[in-house]
Amino acid sequence: MSEPIPLDLARLRRSCVECSLHALCMPAGVDAQDLAHLERVVPRRRPLARGDVLFRTGDPLGAVYVASEGSFKTVAVTPAGEEHVLGFHLPGELFGLDAVGSGQHRCEAVALSDARVCELPFNQLAQVAAQVPSLQRQLLRIMGQSADLDHDHVDVLARRQASERIALFLHGLGERLRRIGRPADDFQLPMSRDEIARYLGLVLETVSRGFSRLHEDGVIEVRGRRVRILDARALQAAASGCEGDDLPPQRRRSPG
């Protein structure tokens, strides 16, 4: 096992500017005593290659994680080897919380690209949070965001129309990118079409057709994994199942 890397706050401020946990070490209200508490939580920056598994189903809870670079997917694998994608985790988003209740991970996390992850030892994090109220509030907020993502996934799967699921996915991804300070209307998808299909409960061909339709209708522009949102209002309307009423006449599809 590698030795923990001492916490360098100056380097952390530079490298984790997009992290959802950045407010834990950078807020103006944190005094020297609180910083001393925070220094006991030692992020270990681990490099991973695309396809590397960070944790597996059944692994004990040792830490929660934040990707400082790259993105991850969490998946459940059936006994037959079929993979169901449960979520995607962008830089700065906390994940690994699935093990907090039972003490064991109920899924596995896989790097979608070359990545670097901060490990936040859970026991130490909980101890420090009990002593630093601002840290505790931040952790509760982030756990709430994680629950929101789970709810959003249920909402996606509840949509009957494939076009709604695809539009809702793209709209939600853009909003999450905005939250971590990245462009919400022009981005590179970290995941493949097949992984999107497994997340949305669709087949690959349906997702490809859905992207093509949004492209042809002038709602988005797609080039490989590059997506530009050209008409955010139309995308939101499509996500709500109201595209026929809300799209401008030139962007409505004729029946048949």
Sum up the structure in keywords.
4-stranded antiparallel beta sheet, globular, disordered C terminus, Arc Repressor Mutant, subunit A, Jelly Rolls, 9 helices
The gross shape turns out to be globular
Count of β-strands: 11
CATH architecture field of the largest domain = Sandwich
Which percent bin holds the helix content? 25-40%
Distance between the termini: 61 Å
InterPro entries: cNMP-bd_dom (IPR000595), cNMP-bd_dom_sf (IPR018490), Env_Response_Regulators (IPR050397), HTH_CRP (IPR012318), RmlC-like_jellyroll (IPR014710), WH-like_DNA-bd_sf (IPR036388), WH_DNA-bd_sf (IPR036390)
Protein name: CRP-like protein Clp
Pfam families: cNMP_binding, HTH_Crp_2
Main location: cytoplasm
Description:
- The protein contains nine helices and eleven strands.
- With 256 residues, it is α+β, with helices and mostly antiparallel strands.
- It has two domains: 9-146, Jelly Rolls (Sandwich); 159-251, Orthogonal Bundle (Arc Repressor Mutant, subunit A), CATH 1.10.10.10.
- It has a four-stranded antiparallel sheet.
- A hairpin with a 5-residue loop joins β4 (72-77) and β5.
- α3 packs across α4 (133-158) and α5 (162-179) packs across α7.
- The chain is globular, with a radius of gyration of 20 Å.
- The relative contact order is 0.12.
- Keywords: Activator, Allosteric enzyme, c-di-GMP, DNA-binding, Repressor, Transcription, Transcription regulation, Virulence.
- Residues 160-233 form the HTH crp-type domain.
- Residues 26-146 form the Cyclic nucleotide-binding domain.
